[in-house]
Amino acid sequence: MPVSGYKKVSITELLMTLETIYKHLLCVCVLTSAFSGVTMAQSISVVDDDGHSVSLKQPAQRIISLAPSMTELLFSLGAGDRVVGVMDFSDYPPEARQRPVVGRFDMLDMETILVLQPDLIVAWRSGNPRNSIQRLKDLGFAVYIAEPDSLASIAGHLSRLGVLTGQTGEAELLQQHFDTELDTLQTIYSDRAAVNVFYQVWHSPIISVGGGELINDMIRLCGGRNIFAELPVGPKVNLEDVLVRDPQIIIASGSNDDTPEWLKDWLKWPQLQAVKNQHLYSIAPDLVQRHSLRALQGAASMCEHIDQVRN
Hints:
With 311 residues, the protein is α/β, with parallel strands linked by helices. It has eleven helices and 14 strands.
């Protein structure tokens, strides 16, 4: 007795059914092949500051940023929701504080990084342990090395990170705005009378800025002359050197946005032009020490302070 619901089919009907299934499978294979070709065509690549090519099959979806400045740029590009881990002191924008901290300047939490499984790691050449970065590369992670050293380099990283995150349109708009604002400051201040500037990063020991730093680039942009421009990055200087070079202005940045108390120590030296003419100023450190879009605010403040000497 036939089983209920069973329908007897002929060999011809069975073959027609199999042919239909085959055609559907063929369509799937063709579509799969086509999409695979699109994926390959959309693979992206940039060259980082170490001169190495960094390639991704698609825009990064899980990003670890090992530099506060690069974290800011990623959020500026609209890729902040894809940042899954950050470096210590990545506190801007406020949303960045909600991301897991995966390291500090002298140590990376390799276990946490492995658990997070990023498809892109944005590293900082002079701010991350080199051995740890090399190990991440050896493990097969895509690592983009950044070493920004000027205002102009900020726009360059915007462009390259825009490519790696698929945010090229946003990157182009931000870069155009950044370059326009930079050109405006250059036009306003570059031809004005030169001013000798002492920039103080810390007080004990006295730490200034050398010629290869972002702050020096800002001073030059504003028509100033860094009195320690011939020195390397983060130079320790003597009190006597500052007194001999007799800056016309002293600008400081402490550990937070407040004017550092130690800036007043220069009042002990009334013979200095900067003290005699009351040209002691401060700028929030994050505006002049981070290679982010906020550096434009820092540069504008720097120019305004330096211009006070000319008035």
